[in-house]
């Protein structure tokens, strides 16, 4: 096996261009089909809100599309790999390249390099675009498709506890002393956990100390009576730092910010195994695109006229989808504490890299 993986710049550009065009074609097809299905299931909920119309549907599609791109880009690379390699095999181009002295690794090298670049672009896209759209979309959904939050650092469904008392909020925006919450509920409970009083408020702000609830409705459980008031201060033991640590959504926080937040969680004595696994997976997930040409390489070799090309393509597809199954299973085990976070995020990648390389060497090298 030669060590010069790129002996021809012309051939490298030819294979890379073919591969990229097929990745884009498959990705656009998958995203459009899945986005239409998603709109069919959610458009009724969005349009049911007074004032919502076509503009809100387009806004929803614009925020949902990046999530679909993030999820299905590795699948697109796998399918594009199979299409590209099967086409090259059927047209006897692989035979021509091997007859010219290229090894199997040299044939795959342009595809591997292209997949690595796609993985890097995917990482940047996920952390710059997908995290923001995910945070806004979750906050919008928590608002039951009402007014769209304008801030990008909104969080939804926040739950806080001060002793036996509980403070919940449908939306939270801002940081530090500038935190603002909407659709707030304060549950005052007895030492045995029974609810004594429920206070609903339209919004809450930090009162230094405590949290000022405005436009409130109070309900006394003992007397079953309700009353309205302008404002009240509750939760004096809850600080902005506790609010910041109340809930971290790894899908909504960029990679370079998530690490610091996880460290803060650990300093507070919180369990961070699930978040740490997802933090590592922000790297291993996009890098999975690099594996797809290696796992699908079995479709590139073997004589097309032998009748085994379809079987080889199925084997390549099976290896690729087996990786996604094992990857999701390992991540789930990491979330439950069955695997260490680093192992849960990276073990499937290295395992299938070894499997793909072994199959390629044993069959073609």
Q: How would you sum up this structure, described in words?
A:
By secondary structure, this protein is α+β, with helices and mostly antiparallel strands. The protein has two domains: 9-144 and 271-364, no CATH class; 155-247, Lipopolysaccharide (LPS) transport protein A like domain (lipopolysaccharide transport protein A fold), CATH 2.60.450. The chain contains ten helices and six strands. The protein has helices at 9-47, 54-90, 93-99, 104-142, 240-244, 255-267, 273-287, 291-295, 309-335, 341-364, and strands at 155-162, 165-173, 180-189, 195-206, 211-220, 225-234. This is LPS export ABC transporter permease LptG. The chain crosses the membrane at residues 20-40, 72-88, 108-125, 283-303, 309-326, 338-361. Keywords: Cell membrane, Membrane, Transmembrane, Transmembrane helix. It is a multi-pass membrane protein.
Main features:
2 domains, 365 residues, 6 strands, 10 helices, alpha+beta, six-stranded antiparallel sheet, elongated, lipopolysaccharide transport protein A fold
What's the topology here?
Elements: H1 9-47, H2 54-90, H3 93-99, H4 104-142, E1 155-162, E2 165-173, E3 180-189, E4 195-206, E5 211-220, E6 225-234, H5 240-244, H6 255-267, H7 273-287, H8 291-295, H9 309-335, H10 341-364
Antiparallel strand pairs: 1-2, 2-3, 3-4, 4-5, 5-6
Helix pairs in contact: 1-2, 1-4, 2-4, 2-9, 4-7, 6-7, 7-10, 9-10
Pfam family, one: LptF_LptG
Transmembrane segments: 20-40, 72-88, 108-125, 283-303, 309-326, 338-361
Main location: membrane
